[in-house]
Specification:
Chain lengths: 156, 148
């Protein structure tokens, strides 16, 4: 018996599953904090090529992809994930207006605020006024987008 | 307008932090078979309700994300370095655009930028190039055209 098997039996499969999910959230947040991406000034400086340029974000993306690419390749070759029956991988390959327009709108907001969803949630407990406002309107924007898309899908 | 200020170039810490983000994405894929896309995880918990079974796991992931900064403060004895603009109307607008756009475009920096590019998804590569470009234009206008 490996230690992994024993701890599964000890905690129960569900507790183990939840613990791993919690750990991935923590790891994601620590990564963002360590990388400086939870600091909107640093993100905006990456996008400010003609001003106070800070190339750090390219290293964050590089570091993340350097781990994710081989990791995904290795684990998605298995028949199924450890705690699930199937891999939920996106299958679409078409380029539609929703993808382009949505990404364009997202990018404008990202530039104006210096926050994207992950760093904004991570920075939320630090409770800067701007972060609180940003997260509140971001969630509103998400719900609005979902509502509009649901209505469109129902009409189609 | 936006605070124009120098930030220190941190290649080593940023690479390491990025690696941790990647490790989290791999862990989630290996165990749950899910993409670590924060806009997707957030939008699934919001109304209108969707019939997605990943909801409780998404909530647990978000709790982990929210615990990171408090634990950081306890371990380091100080808050992580952060400068958030005091221009609240601007941040309110930015939030709406980020929220609306990321759901419309099926992903953000994590889902498209990290996970999608790692899967060599054409859609994610196009999405990432698009939001990088408009982000660059937004900062250019904010700092050098209207704010300059």
């Amino acid at each position: 018996m490996s230690p992994f098997c024993c701890s599964v039996t000890f905690l129960g499969a569900n507790a183990m599953k939840n613990l791993v999910t919690l750990l991935s959230g923590l790891l994601f947040g620590f990564g963002l904090l360590l990388s400086g991406m939870a600091n909107p000034a640093k993100v905006q400086n990456f996008l400010d090529l003609f001003g106070t340029w800070d190339p750090s974000l390219a290293f964050v993306m590089g570091g993340a992809i350097a781990v994710t690419m081989p990791g995904f390749w290795l684990f998605t070759r298995r028949s199924k994930p450890f705690f699930n029956t199937v891999f939920h991988l996106p299958t679409r390959t078409d380029f539609d207006m929703r993808l382009i327009a949505g990404s364009a709108i997202f990018g404008i907001g990202w530039g104006l605020g210096g926050f994207c969803p992950g760093p904004a949630v991570t920075a939320l407990p630090l409770a800067a006024k701007g972060t609180l406002i940003f997260v509140a309107t971001m969630l509103t924007g998400m719900a609005a987008s979902k509502y509009v898309l649901n209505r469109q899908d129902n009409r189609a | 307008m936006g605070p124009t200020m120098q930030t220190e170039f941190t290649p080593f810490l940023s690479l390491l932090g990025g690696g941790l983000v990647g490790a989290s994405a791999v862990l989630l894929m290996a165990t749950h078979g899910r993409i670590a896309g924060i806009s997707g995880i957030l939008s699934r918990i919001l109304p209108p309700a969707s019939k997605d079974q990943s909801l409780p796991q998404g909530l647990i992931f978000l709790i982990g994300l929210l615990l990171a900064a408090p634990i950081w403060v306890v371990l380091n004895g100080q808050a992580p370095l952060q400068t958030v603009s005091n221009n609240l109307p601007l941040l309110a607008l930015a939030g709406v655009l980020v929220g609306f756009g990321s759901v419309l475009g099926n992903g953000c920096t994590s889902g498209h930028g990290v996970c999608g590019i790692s899967r060599l998804s054409g859609r994610s590569i196009v999405a990432t190039l698009t939001f990088m470009s408009t982000g660059f234009v937004a900062v250019l206008l904010l700092r050098h055209v209207f704010g300059g």
